Amino acid sequence: MTIKNVAIGGNHGTDFDIETVRTIGFRTTNMVEAILLNGVRHGDDQGRETETLELQQDEYICRLVIYNSHDRKKNEDRIRGIEVTTSEGRTLTAGTLDGPTDVLDGVRVLGLGGNGGHMLFMLRVRYIENYIESTPLPGDWKAVVRVIPQGQTFESFQSSRVSKLDASRIFLETVTSLQQTSEAGVAVGEFSARASTTFGISVTTQNEFIEQVETETVSSERITYAPPLGHVGLEVVPMEAFTASDGTVWFFPVADPSIVSAAVSGPDVIKEELFDMTGVLSLHLPYMALQSYGLERFSEPLPA
After folding, report:
1. Angle in degrees, CA 282, 288, 294, rounded to 5
2. Better pLDDT: 268 or 277
3. Which of 33, 83, 234, 277 pairs with 179 at a CA distance of 20 to 30 A?
4. If you write DSSP's letter for every residue of 265-291 in order, what string do you get?
5. Where do the DSSP E strands lie in 149-230?
6. Does 190 score more than 70 pLDDT?
7. Three-state secondary structure of 50-66
């Protein structure tokens, strides 16, 4: 189960980039004249406009049937008809539903793009093949994504949105580096899909997500934090954990990060268990060696 890209139709007209599908509709005659993707028309304005599907938080396109056509006179490959089915069982059709077909079934569509002009010529689809949803790992998970040693300062983001985006970036980089997950891995695809719906952005790859985070962090206002005497600063993020069908464990924040001043010793030391994403937590807080855990915790068998 990997992320794949496919182009169906003819390379005519003007390209439009692949983006996450939040809303989808079409303009149609006996052909598909245009796709209405996230409120933007790509193609012609002929024909009638279909219903527009607005995908819900966890809804995605799981089946796509594309009917192809070739105009010999103009030597153009075109999209003759389309059938869309979502994970919630909703359907949308456009054009003429006969002729040669390309079928993507049992997939999770991450994004659509293509070519449009005086009609819709091509659809480009980025999708997870043979898709099976990840399994949530039960538990109250919290991760340490940053350690601020005594005597040092840290500039945290004033915007809770940007803080959460930045924490999400760390989660994604942890997954790909520790588990050697490639850009085509299913966990990256699921993470990108959740990030798009959570933050209202359109990303379908790890690089696109990181670029989005960098764009927002550059202009975000910051607050300077310095740990008090006898304390170490920790950036802690409540999170969900999932196991993808290929065995990859991945994470996503469920709340804004917070900066915690952790006592080095004494009665006010941290007493809860934390997932150490930094690898250096116990170096600064030795007592956390018994209270922190790594990625191996998530591969342990769950209690019966």
Report:
1. 75
2. 277
3. 234
4. SSTTS--S-EEESSS-HHHHSGGGGGT
5. 154-157, 222-225
6. yes
7. CCCEECCCCCCEEEEEE
- Alpha-carbon distance of 236 to 77, in angstroms, equals 53
Cα-Cα-Cα-Cα dihedral sign, residues 291, 136, 184, 300: positive
Q: Is 218 exposed, middle or buried (0-12, 13-18, 19+ CB in 10 A)?
A: exposed
pTM of this prediction? 0.84
Domains in the chain and their CATH numbers? 3-128 (2.100.10.30), 135-299 (no CATH)
Q: Which residues contact 270 (CB under 8 A, 6 or more apart)?
A: 234, 260, 262, 263, 285, 288, 291
Q: What is the spatial distance between Cα 140 and Cα 120, in angstroms, rounded to a whole number?
A: 48
Burial zone of 164 (CB within 10 Å; 0-12 exposed, 13-18 middle, 19+ buried): buried
Instruction: Please tell me the predicted confidence (pLDDT) of residue 264.
Output: 95
C-alpha to C-alpha distances, 263 to 199, 229, 294, nearest whole angstrom: 34, 9, 21
What's the token pair of residue 153?
Answer: 């300062």
User: What pLDDT score does 302 carry?
Assistant: 47
